[in-house]
Write a structure and sequence with these properties.
The protein is α/β, with parallel strands linked by helices. It has two domains: 35 residues; 286 residues, Ribonucleoside hydrolase-like (Inosine-uridine Nucleoside N-ribohydrolase, Chain A), CATH 3.90.245.10. It contains 14 helices and ten strands. The protein has an eight-stranded mixed β-sheet, sandwiched between helices. It has a two-stranded antiparallel sheet with strand order 8-9. Helix 3 links the parallel strand 2 and strand 3. The protein starts with a helix and ends with a helix. 43% of the residues are buried.
Length: 324
């Protein structure tokens, strides 16, 4: 009888152990399946100048395909931009996303339209150095991190200067910047005016040159493909959603103080999620000393999106932003 009971207990224990192992394996399998198609990203942004950074951040936060490891403040008075980012994330319930402070640089004060959003409370919690923390994340996840750079390249250049070998472990860098054939204001309705020295490049020319020469997979969303006019109909539809995210975006939009935004930066985020939204062409691009991004002879060093479909982009953007 004692032997029978012992065998029964042993049999039950083995069964429980086997069931536990099977459930754990299923959980691991589900987690792995859930991670398929999810990309680790770090966003480097000069939020607070033009409003398109805010719309780009909103798209990233609404996209389950992106695992946002960190958001870096970039350009000018970066402490205020850090405070802006912390407030934005706190207000929408995403304070779990770290915010890091980038490199202080010169900037035109007149462009810092939304700075009051960050000045009210200041930095809410300790913020790590963006250069060191980004490099640490790249070391921790070699060839897995996409860096989305939607501001002047001060932080990016500082990473390259500090540790170029680690920087080359990045999976890819997706930038909004440059102008190849169509410059600012060239929407295809008039005779082409040719390229111009685009804002993100011209504000940090030597820094941009370092990125284009460092030898990492680089994807470029220039003005040729990013002049997406966010008209009144779409704005009204978005802002009447009255969610925590759209409410904060509306505050930033009102502080911006103009009417129709051009969604340059969101294209870099959209491309990271779905590359079909902005098909690229391999080119060799040189950043000259005036801030022009010139196509030149040589092995391709950049994948450049030269044309996109605004209807397709806004269909993607609005469906994503209006999703519950």
């Amino acid at each position: 009888m004692n032997i029978f009971r012992f065998n029964l207990v042993l049999l039950v224990a083995v069964g429980v152990w086997a069931l536990t192992c099977r459930l754990e394996a299923q959980a691991v399998g589900k987690a792995a399946t859930a991670r398929q198609g999810v990309e680790d990203v770090i966003i480097d942004t000069d939020v607070g100048d033009d409003i398109d950074d805010g719309f780009a951040l909103a798209l990233a936060l609404k996209s389950p395909e992106l695992n946002i490891l960190q958001i870096n403040s970039d350009f000018g008075i970066v402490s205020i931009r850090t405070a802006m980012l912390q407030r934005f994330l706190d207000e929408i319930g995403r304070s779990d996303i770290p915010v890091a402070t980038g490199v202080v640089s010169q900037m035109p004060e007149s462009h810092f339209t939304q700075r009051r959003y960050g000045e009210r409370d200041g930095i809410r919690r300790p913020s790590p150095d963006a250069i060191a923390s980004t490099l640490d994340l790249i070391r921790k996840h070699p060839h897995e991190v996409t860096l989305i750079a939607i501001g002047p390249m001060y932080n990016v250049a500082a990473m390259i200067d500090r540790d170029p070998e680690t920087f080359r472990l990045v999976k890819r860098v997706v930038v909004m910047g440059g102008s190849i054939y169509k410059g600012q204001g060239d929407l295809g309705y008039e005779k082409p005016k040719g390229p111009n020295a685009e804002w993100n490049i011209v504000q940090a020319i030597p820094e941009a040159q370092k990125l284009f020469n460092v030898g990492v997979p680089l994807y470029m969303m220039p003005t040729d493909a990013t002049q997406m006019k966010f008209d009144e109909v779409k704005r009204e539809l978005l802002f009447r959603q009255d969610t925590k995210l759209t409410d904060q975006l509306l505050i930033l939009y009102q502080l911006w103080g103009r009417l129709t935004p051009t969604l340059y930066d969101p294209m870099a985020v959209a491309y990271t999620i779905d590359s079909k939204l902005c098909p690229t062409t391999p080119m060799h691009i040189t950043v000259d000393n005036e801030g022009f991004t010139r196509p030149t002879e040589g092995e391709p060093n950049v994948q450049v999106c030269l044309e996109s479909n605004p209807d397709r982009f806004f269909h993607f953007y609005m469906k994503r932003m209006l999703a519950k």
